[in-house]
Design brief:
- By secondary structure, this protein is mainly alpha-helical.
- It folds into two domains: 22-117; 128-232.
- The protein is 70% helix and 0% strand.
- The protein has helices spanning 9-15, 24-39, 48-127, 139-142, 154-177, 183-193, 196-233, 255-267.
- Helix 6 (183-193) runs antiparallel to helix 7 and helix 7 packs parallel to helix 8.
- The longest helix is centred in the first third of the chain and has 80 residues, at 48-127.
- It is elongated, with a radius of gyration of 51 Å.
- The chain starts with 8 loop residues before the first helix and ends in a 9-residue tail after the last helix.
Length: 276
């Protein structure tokens, strides 16, 4: 079956000009003349009967023109309505056909993309076969959707993947060479965006944060020691009501802190004994 051919006649019919031969312009001229004639008259009592008859005649003409107009408009609308309905039906049929063809094209393109992706996966597996990074990355992490474009040649895909994998391998070596205690965290961070410069900045930030934390801890310890020293240098004053009580405590602490506690007890004349 040959492909249907759209007839040229439909364009001619659409562009054609529809005309109606009638004397409506002559009637309009008559109406204008009649209007001008009566606008200059003033009816007398004797002429009222004549005026009423003339009014009836004019009203008949109005009805005749109105009926004629409605008939002509109706006759014009019928072929237009038929044409509009048929045209819409035709558009619907063509759109359905277009959608069917479009689905065929999309299915074909998707099938070709799937075939190309399989080929790319094979290339990727060969590229990382001897690389230690094969356990750290996968194809999805470095995949570029442009690879699947028809204009992107497979040899260009292989070249791009090879360069990416080599760069990642080199960057991971650079991270290891930092000898950072945060290597695991830095590596995981790098694998999210493959930006070595950000990793280096992050390593510096973590080191500075550690130094600041250590300084804060030392400062806190100094303050604590200062308080202890102050406490050990002064006897605790007695209160007005200060009953003597006995407690049995089991203390677990570094020897240095136990000595400090002993000194505090002795300074305040507090009796104590070792209980095994």
């Amino acid at each position: 079956m040959d492909k249907p051919i759209l007839k040229d006649e439909i364009e001619a019919k659409i562009k054609g000009t529809v005309t109606v031969e009638n004397n409506i312009l002559e009637v309009k001229e008559y109406a204008l003349e009649l209007k001008e004639y009566y606008s200059k008259l003033i009816f007398t009592d004797e002429q009222i009967k004549e005026a009423e008859d003339e009014r009836a005649s004019i009203n008949k003409i109005i009805k005749k023109v109105a009926d004629y107009r409605k008939d002509i408009v109706t006759d014009f609308k019928k072929p237009i309505e038929v044409f509009e309905t048929t045209a819409k039906e035709t558009e619907k049929i063509l759109k359905e056909t277009s959608e069917f063809v479009n689905n065929q094209v999309k299915n074909y393109i998707e099938k070709e993309k799937n075939k190309k992706r399989i080929e790319i996966e094979k290339i990727y597996n060969e590229l990382v076969e001897d690389e230690a990074i094969s356990t750290l990355i996968n194809l999805n992490m470095i995949f570029d959707e442009r690879y699947l474009n028809k204009t992107y040649k497979i040899e260009d895909v292989e070249k791009d993947l090879s360069e990416k994998i080599q760069k990642i391998a080199n960057d991971l070596v650079a991270i290891k060479d930092l000898n950072s205690e945060y290597e695991v965290s830095l590596t995981n961070s790098y694998l999210k965006n493959f930006d070595l410069s950000k990793v280096i900045v992050e390593n510096k930030r973590l080191q500075e944060l550690k130094q600041e934390t250590q300084k804060a801890e030392v400062k806190q310890e100094e303050i604590k020691q200062e308080k202890v020293n102050t406490m050990l240098s002064k006897e605790v004053p007695k209160e007005d009501i200060d009953p003597v009580k006995t407690y049995t405590l089991k203390i677990t602490a570094p020897l240095s802190k136990q000595k400090a506690l002993r000194k505090f007890l002795e300074l305040n004349n507090m009796k104590f004994e070792k209980v095994d």
